[in-house]
């Protein structure tokens, strides 16, 4: 079951006439609606949107598992692997943090933090950062030696962004905080308004060009200057629409996809688009709804919508090159370019490979049978997935 639970933002002041009991009941019902929308095993009734059966096809692409390592279970959180300096970094809810040789899967080091973790690893290869319960930030050097601790304003659900001498973290109270990568001292903090209901899978941050690009609830993509947190530009990827709070959820999902000249993002119940890196001017934008984020390569942008339809867009124009609707309701991860194919994980731990040319199936691998919810990452010549049960798997294509 995908972690898309609507939650009440902790920092928001609710000026409502309902009693506390009625408000709690309302939020519980909202959470149930969002969470259970794709899950049939909690009810004896027939699922109105059953997962599409696996399609049979003739394999056209040679793919193989280069290596796999168990890091530990994700629990109720999403743990995204990271790649830097020739290594894959991964973490688990029980506090395990690993550095893995990306070429052969050998463990470089494995440590255990003193608190359960709530988000994946952020690293630039030199500084390795994880966040634990109640927002405890822990940093390590490249050898796994602890270097500093800090405290986030509240719970953190998305991986830290590390780069250009800073660690940038977004907490669920919608504060974006930057810490010195060397000693953990706070450099700046930006506070944003919090919608009353947001998706549980928190939007992420990417750092580049002296800027932190922050995906935000409420459908905003914000560019903040790394030196002081000042705004460079901000654009709407999704505009809250509808009359109910559930209908008005329009969070930017996943981590924005950063290119050399543009940055692309997608919103739940919103749009997908690419924007000029320097000023935020719209290159193209289209109606789309996704809760898993977007990726790109030199020519295309890839996204899976909330129904499980995978689309490849032309990066320069936004024209849809192809759509694959054979994975509907399989609760997909974000798709990612993998050589001549596009790879995407699903709720049963399958990794599907689609042709970059026309979106047809060209190969399929199985992992450990547990959901692949975390976004995959490119790691040199391979693509790395992390499953809910904690298998970190590197796959290569011919």
TrEMBL record:
Matches recorded under InterPro entries: BamB (IPR017687), PQQ_b-propeller_rpt (IPR018391), PQQ_rpt_dom (IPR002372), Quinoprotein_ADH-like_sf (IPR011047), WD40/YVTN_repeat-like_dom_sf (IPR015943)
Record-level GO cellular component terms: cell outer membrane
Keyword Nucleotide-binding attached: no
Keyword Transmembrane: no
Major location (coarse): membrane
UniProt xrefs under Pfam families: PQQ_2 (PF13360)
SMART domains, per database record: PQQ (SM00564)
Biological process according to GO: Gram-negative-bacterium-type cell outer membrane assembly; protein insertion into membrane
Superkingdom classification of source: Bacteria
Subcellular locations according to the entry: Cell outer membrane
Keywords: Cell outer membrane, Membrane, Signal
Domain Pyrrolo-quinoline quinone repeat residue range list: 94-322
Function text: Part of the outer membrane protein assembly complex, which is involved in assembly and insertion of beta-barrel proteins into the outer membrane.
Family note: Belongs to the BamB family.
Record note on quaternary structure: Part of the Bam complex.
Protein name: Outer membrane protein assembly factor BamB
């Amino acid at each position: 079951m995908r972690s898309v639970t609507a939650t009440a933002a902790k920092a928001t002041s609710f000026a409502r006439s309902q009693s506390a009991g009625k408000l709690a009941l309302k939020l519980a019902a909202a959470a149930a609606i969002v969470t259970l929308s794709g899950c049939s095993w909690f009810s004896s009734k027939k699922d109105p949107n059953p997962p599409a059966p696996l399609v049979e096809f003739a394999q056209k692409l040679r793919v193989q598992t280069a290596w796999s390592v168990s890091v530990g279970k994700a629990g109720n959180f999403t743990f995204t692997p990271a790649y830097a300096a020739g290594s894959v970094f991964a973490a688990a809810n029980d506090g395990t943090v690993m550095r893995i040789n990306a070429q052969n899967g050998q463990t470089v080091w494995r440590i255990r933090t003193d608190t359960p973790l709530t988000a994946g690893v952020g690293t630039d290869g030199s500084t390795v950062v994880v966040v634990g319960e109640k927002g405890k930030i822990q940093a390590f050097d490249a050898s796994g030696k602890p270097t500093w601790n800090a405290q986030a304003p509240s719970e953190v659900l998305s991986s830290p962004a590390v780069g250009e001498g800073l660690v940038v973290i977004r907490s669920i109270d919608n504060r974006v905080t930057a810490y010195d990568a060397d000693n953990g001292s706070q450099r700046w903090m930006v506070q944003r308004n919090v919608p009353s209901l947001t998706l549980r899978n928190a939007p992420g941050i990417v750092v580049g060009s002296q800027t932190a690009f922050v995906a935000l609830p409420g459908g905003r993509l914000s560019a903040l200057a790394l030196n002081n947190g000042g705004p460079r530009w901000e654009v709407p990827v999704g505009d809250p629409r509808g009359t109910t709070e559930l209908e008005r959820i329009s969070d930017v999902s996943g981590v924005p996809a950063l290119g050399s000249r543009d940055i692309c993002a997608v919103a739940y119940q919103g749009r997908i688009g690419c924007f000029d890196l320097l000023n935020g001017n719209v290159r193209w934008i289209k109606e789309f709804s996704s809760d898993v984020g977007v990726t790109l390569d030199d020519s295309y942008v890839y996204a899976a919508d909330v129904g499980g339809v995978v689309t490849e867009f032309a990066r320069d124009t936004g024209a849809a090159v192809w759509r694959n609707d054979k994975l509907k309701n399989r609760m997909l991860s974000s798709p990612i370019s993998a050589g001549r194919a596009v790879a995407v994980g699903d709720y049963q731990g399958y990794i599907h490979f689609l042709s970059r040319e026309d979106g047809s199936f060209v190969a399929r691998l199985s992992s450990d049978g547990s959901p692949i919810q975390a976004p995959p990452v490119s790691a040199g010549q391979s693509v790395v997935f992390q499953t809910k049960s904690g298998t970190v798997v590197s796959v290569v294509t011919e």
